Amino acid sequence: MTTVADFSIYGLVMHADPVVKGVLVLLVLASVYCWAVIIEKAIRLVRLNGDLRRLREAERGSLQPQSWHGLARVVLDAGKRELEEGSSRGESRNELRARVERAMRTALKSELHRLEVGLPFLATVGSAAPFVGLFGTVWGIVHSFTSIAQQKDTSLSVVAPGIAEALIATALGLAAAIPAVVAYNQIAVSLGRASVRANASVTEIAKRLARPQTEPVLRPAAEPVCAGEHV
């Protein structure tokens, strides 16, 4: 009585060589983590777009965003903190603006770097997963041909199951790599555009923050002297 081979995905995986099974498990775990990173980055990019709109509003609107949070709040707080704690006598308006802008850009860069966490993993999976899958396929084919040699039977019913088991690794490698590559490119481009927009807003906000501080910084003793002369 001949045994009918199970050609379902589950059956092929369960009858695969232990090394091929290990490759499949590795690719599945990598794919799951990639999708977790992709979903997390999609959510954070939506929030980032909201922060960029708030920074755009701050160019001509209020600079007292009590209800703001996220990147916009961090960047504005960095500028205000530098304005209050880093002032020095005889500082020109351009020097003040440059110092505030530098502090805001540093905070912005730090926040954008936090958004890049996970992107190297996407790039690694996108480039390495097809080769990992190919390794599983080659190993499975070698194991399949070894079994054929031992059985001394080259019929299709003997060859096909082993080849099919091996090719699943390549298919899974591509399934893990394609979304990772597409997501990495999209996220990298979005972050690059966001950086350009945010830096443009930072320049305008720094000008606004420096403007009201110009006179007190340039004339620190003016008020006491004037008050004494008019008494």
List its traits:
about 230 residues, mainly alpha, 8 helices, about 80% helix, rod-shaped
Give an overview of the whole structure.
This protein has eight helices and no strands. It is an all-alpha fold and 231 residues long. The chain has one domain. The termini are far apart. Mean pLDDT is 78; it is low at 213-231.
Return residue spans where pLDDT drops below 50 for at least 5 consecutive residues: 213-231
Work out the helix count.
Answer: 8
The succession of helices and strands, N to C, reads HHHHHHHH
What is the rounded Rg? 31 Å
Give the overall shape: rod-shaped
**Mean of residue pLDDT values:** 78
Structural class: mainly alpha
Query: Alpha-carbon distance between the termini?
Result: 118 Å
What is the total domain count?
1
Which range does the strand content fall in?
under 5%
Number of DSSP E strands: 0
Largest sheet: none
Helix content: over 70%
Short description:
The protein is mainly alpha-helical. The chain has helices spanning 9-14, 18-58, 71-85, 93-115, 119-151, 156-210, 214-218, 222-230. 81% of the residues lie in helices and 0% in strands.
Write the layout of secondary structure elements.
Blueprint: H1 9-14, H2 18-58, H3 71-85, H4 93-115, H5 119-151, H6 156-210, H7 214-218, H8 222-230
Helix pairs in contact: 2-3, 2-5, 2-6, 3-4, 3-6, 4-6, 5-6
